[in-house]
Amino acid sequence: MSFYSLEIKDRVRNAAHIMVKKFSESVFRHEPVLVEEILSLFPSSFQNGWVLDCTFGAGGHTKAILNHYPSCSVIALDRDLYSIKWGLENIKSHFSEQSLRLIHANFHQYSDLMEHHFPLFMKTKGFDIIIVDLGVSSPQLDEADRGFSFYKEGPLDMRMDRRQSFTASDIINQWSEKQLMDLFYSYGEIYNVKPVVKALVKERKKSPIKTTKQLADLIIKKRGWRKKGAHPATSYFLALRLKVNNELEGLSENLPKMIQSLNIFGRVFVVTFHSLEDRIVKNIFRKEDKKIGNHLTKKVITPTREEIKRNPRARSAKLRVFEKEVNNELSAST
């Protein structure tokens, strides 16, 4: 079976090591969401099957699955090099080579992964479980240098994969007024974007907007905030993150491919954190329902009060599950 090998060039290795040290300091505060609910919905026959964790992050779901099903095997992907590097240094040693493989890859290239890197595996084994957690991990949010947080001073970055060049700064400082309005309306679901966008365009004419705090302060100034309720920059930062990382398009394009690649009676679990993602997942599952399988969670699953109290970042999480019930040859002929 052929798998990616993690190759880090020397000039990247040192930077990765520094980032991993910072990452390690915060990663232990990360808590995966809806773990009990996910495990409770594994097929009763699942014991030594194959799992694909498309968003390894801090490894919470992977660890929980391997601890609950020690005979199973997990292939874990993440587009964030530091997540994979951290996993290799802190998690991989607790499990055998057969139990856990970590791969620096983006599930948005799902077809390429399956066709060119796992061809023999997909013919002989295939996946019984696929996990997709679409949240940003706590270490990413907590590390100011990543540019995801409006509470901390950092560069306007927001890249989950630092191999790409496109950043949030490019959007804020180069996009037209109309493009910005369309972005915040469509991706942030903000209905009165004009005052903020006009102020942003005016400000960047004086000098580029370079940091998260600059942008957050500008939004607060135009929207107002008494430090109660959600931060007024929340939806603006969400829209930027979604666009920088091509998240909605990647989900729409690749979730159907994941369903197709499952073994019969395999299940795909998707955890979303806002309405745009959840709508995409719900519509795809609804389209495939009774055609190739069964949408098991027509009523979406959300965290318990106890989990939200323990982990406030879980409050907006939603879980949907789909089970494949026919093989690809039969679905292609219907």
Question: What attributes characterize this protein structure?
Answer:
334 residues, alpha/beta, Rossmann fold, DNA polymerase, domain 1, 2 domains, seven-stranded mixed β-sheet, globular, disordered N terminus
Question: What does this protein structure show overall?
Answer:
The protein is an alpha/beta fold and 334 residues long. It folds into two domains: 10-21 and 34-139 and 247-306 and 314-333, Rossmann fold (3-Layer(aba) Sandwich), CATH 3.40.50; 162-244, DNA polymerase, domain 1 (Orthogonal Bundle). Helices cover 47% and strands 13% of the residues. Strands 3-2-1-4-5-7-6 form a seven-stranded mixed β-sheet, with helices on both faces. Helix 10 (194-206) packs across helix 11 (212-223). It is globular, with a radius of gyration of 20 Å. The two termini are 32 Å apart.
The proportion of residues forming helix, as a percent range, comes to: 40-55%
**Regions with little confidence, pLDDT below 50 for 5+ residues:** 1-28, 329-334
Predict the CATH topology of the largest domain. Rossmann fold
Order of helices and strands: HHEHEHEHHEHHHHHHHEHEHEH
